[in-house]
Specification:
The chain is of the alpha+beta class and about 290 residues long. Helices cover about 25% and strands about 40% of the residues. Bound molecules: zinc ion. Zinc ion binds near residues 85 and 228.
Length: about 290
């Protein structure tokens, strides 16, 4: 936690992009042994670093503009974190990663464990190591929750990333998911206009998983909070729109490093990713116009 913020994007982009992992071609036998030892060393140091790294697949901006093709497999994503949020190829449901399991909250309101071969067009994960917690009470809506969590962020440093996990019983829980999209893909706000499905639950016990991105992330993701939810019995969940609860503990993990996985796919390379889609992002994240 004493490490300074290291943006690892440049380093990541030097490895082969297609796989988002530094896989090497096997050489002859003697070289191969050396390579294997070097790889093992790299792997162990990578694993240590990964615990304090936000790993991001693509950009919220590419997803918002309609790039829904999977970039990495669920099996690969799991190597980079045990907590997280995201979605699946074709925006086939909302992703909740909790305790190392990747859940898929589908548009028909059911939740399933995502298969390792499923692919991911957008996600953020990290390994959760609790740095502290905040006791919350009488939270009337999602904005009140954001206010309390922002106070925690102000106290700990607003220019770090945070993952929060908050287990509790929620008097009100309003989540959404969406129906899987088929090609040609529409932009996300257009897709959600017809294919968003909202679900309202009362007195439901489960876990809110949340990511906080600092203000300077508005070109790659969205500043502030992004909440997903999954019930304790793993049958209900989605992208959180609103909630109400009387008491819960929010545990947080402050995270000072950032790593990003892109694709060399031609359609992705044609995208204009500096285009300002912040209004569309606000609309898809919060349901607000
Ligand atoms: Zn979401």
């Amino acid at each position: 936690m004493k490490k300074i913020l290291a943006i690892l994007l440049a380093a990541t982009m030097m490895v082969p992009l297609a796989a988002c992992s530094a896989q090497q071609q096997s050489g002859n036998n003697s070289e191969q042994q050396e390579t294997t030892a070097a790889q093992a060393e790299t792997k162990s140091s990578q694993t240590e670093n990964d615990r304090e790294t936000i790993y991001q697949v693509a950009l919220l901006q590419s997803l918002t503009q309609g790039y829904y093709d999977g970039i990495i497999k669920v099996s690969e994503l799991k190597k980079h974190g045990d907590i997280g949020i995201g979605t699946f190829e074709g925006v086939n449901g909302e992703m909740i990663v909790l305790d190392g399991t990747v859940y898929q909250a589908l548009g028909d309101s059911t939740v399933q464990e995502a298969a390792d071969y499923e692919t991911v067009p957008f996600s953020n994960v990290t390994f959760f190591d609790k740095d502290g917690s905040v006791e919350l009470s009488d939270i009337g809506d999602v904005n009140a929750l954001k206010e309390k969590l922002n106070a925690m962020v102000e106290q700990n440093g607003k220019n770090l990333f945070y993952f929060v996990r908050m287990n509790g019983t929620f008097e009100k829980m309003n989540v959404r998911s969406e129906i899987k999209q088929e090609k040609p893909y529409k932009t996300l706000d257009k897709a959600l206009e017809t294919d968003q499905r909202e679900f309202n639950y009362d007195n439901i016990t489960g876990t809110v998983v949340a990511l906080y991105c600092p203000d300077y992330m508005n070109g790659l993701n969205t500043p502030g909070w992004h909440f997903h939810f999954i019930s304790d019995d793993k049958t209900k969940g989605g992208h959180l729109l609103d909630l109400k609860f009387s008491k819960a503990t929010a545990e947080y993990d402050a995270t000072p490093e950032f790593d990003m996985c892109l694709t060399d796919n031609g359609d992705f390379q044609k995208m204009e990713l500096s285009k300002d889609v912040s209004d569309a992002i606000k609309k898809v994240e919060t349901n607000e116009e």
